[in-house]
Amino acid sequence: MINPAYPHSAYHQSVREDDMEGMLRDAFNIHSHGLQSFPPDFIASDDCNIGGNAFTKMERSVPNEEPNRKAVKFYKLLNEMNEELYEGSKYSKISFCIRLFHLKCLGGWTENSFTMLLEFLRDMFPFAKIPHSCKDMKKLIKDLGLGYDKIHSCPNDCMLYWSDRKNQQSCHVCGKSCWRNMNTEDLNEDEGEVQSRKKQIKILQYFLLIPRLQRHFISSKTAESMRWHHDQRTDDGLLRHPADSLAWKSFDSKFPSFATDPQNVRLGLASDGFNPYKIMSTSYSTWPVVLVPYNLPPWICMK
Q: The organism sits in which domain of life (predicted)?
């Protein structure tokens, strides 16, 4: 699938409209024959069945059975993919949003500037189905699976408020609270009640790893590349790829059962801190932790 959040993505080139449905079916692993879009007025209820896989054998499913959440997302995106930006347009509504949001990420536009651009485009082309704001566009493409989880962190990096410690209010190591000392209090004029709002001191933004690795194999566009280190690499003794290194070969000798399957994922971890605001007098810093899949060819994994 296209990931507009990464400026150097291999998918920065234009996507042909006739490939969009194939890419969508790849991403959701839905290739059953005869699948049709839901009617335009289809509305999925919140209590849709989320168990099982509604696409195992579509032709035998119960006619009135509601699809699971994965199916709802797929059909919603499929309908939006088939919805023209305007009558006679070669672009669909969702492909327009993906392309434009990709440009936002490449150009480093703020959400306010992006919203102003959308307002200008809607005023210039009132006949086109253009979202009202950046927030609306994010809602439209959120089902592509490009989101992340927010996990509270100890200000001193002792722990993460995760799993069975999710609801803790302070660190069990250093005792530091996860909330800022200064709580803002807003007066609700309608109800006359004082509501206290708390803000976390430090948050880990976690891009879920497993779904992203699964997408490399679910999509036919990238599944072949995940075997490149085994199927297409030139093994002539020269160091062109991590697979040519002594560390890689040493790992293979220690874990031969793992090495026998070329689809097993090899990940390299890199991390470093930087000041995102370019102000050296402040102590604020960001520490991204990046996992690089070394299965891929060097022009992708080293980019």
A: Eukaryota
What integer pLDDT is reported at residue 280 of this predicted model?
67
Instruction: Output the 3-class SS for 68-99.
Output: CHHHHHHHHHHHHHHCECCCCCCCEHHHHHHH
HEC string of 272-288? Answer: CCECCCCCCCCCCCECC
Q: At what angle do helices 69-82 and 17-28 cross, to 10 degrees?
A: 180
**Rg of the chain (C-alpha set):** 24
**Separation of alpha carbons 62 and 170, rounded Å:** 50
The answer to whether 150 and 204 have CB atoms below 8 angstroms apart is yes
Identify whether the C-beta of residue 204 lies closer than 8 Å to the C-beta of residue 151. yes
Helix or strand (DSSP H, E) at 293:
strand 289-293
Structural contact between residues 137 and 153, judged by C-beta atoms closer than 8 angstroms? no
User: 0.70 cut: is pTM over it?
Assistant: no
CA of 111: how far to CAs of 101, 107, 115, 220, 227, in Å?
Answer: 10, 12, 6, 33, 38
**CA proximity to 287, closest of 200, 205, 177, 170:** 205
pLDDT tens digits for range 101-138: 989 988 989 999 999 999 999 999 999 999 999 988 88
Cα–Cα distance, 39 to 185 (Å, whole number)? 47
Residues 6+ apart with CB under 8 A from 260: none
Amino acid at 121: L
Query: pLDDT tens digits for 210-261?
Result: 888 888 887 777 889 999 999 988 888 888 899 999 999 999 999 999 999 9
